[in-house]
Amino acid sequence: xxxxxxxxxxxxxxxxxxxxxxxxxxxxxxxxxxxxxxxxxxxxxxxxxxxxxxxxxxxxxxxxxxxxxxxxxxxxxxxxxxxxxxxxxxxxxxxxxxxxxxxxxxxxxxxxxxxxxxxxxxxxxxxxxxxxxxxxxxxxxxxxxxxxxxxxxxxxxxxxxxxxxxxxxxxxxxxxxxxxxxxxxx
Length: 186
Fold this sequence. Notes:
Order of helices and strands: HEEHEEHEEHHHH
Distance between the termini: 33 Å
Radius of gyration: 21 Å
Oligomer: single chain
Number of helices: 7
Largest sheet: 4 strands, mixed
Strand content: 15-25%
Number of strands: 6
């Protein structure tokens, strides 16, 4: 176990944009130790914090970076891509009918069999049992209405929703750069 704790694989680097904010909160923007060191050598990042773990070669020695910031600002996307993950994130990983966080799927409010499209405005997160119950029917035929009306989310909305789900592992050196809102987690 002690060997695993000292392994470089257990030393990811938190990656911040040039404005010192994470590139993403969910999933948290992390690089493996090799990518972090490569970026340091290519002078693409500034090291802000380090682990106690050192890596060595015959001619080189370096503490592994735990927090790096990009030297060049990466402009975030203005409109988030329509993906399954982003729909789940918009809907906070909960079925929009019963609130369950388990066995999540897409549900088309206007079923595809009735001409419904796969768009932000027509798709919500649903657990498999609710999706099966609703089937190819319209919401008003089965009295199943989404808790939150479907909408095109903003990048900020997805970022804020992502902050509701802190990862299982947070290194102490990351605390000054991550802002997990404890009120949101309740």
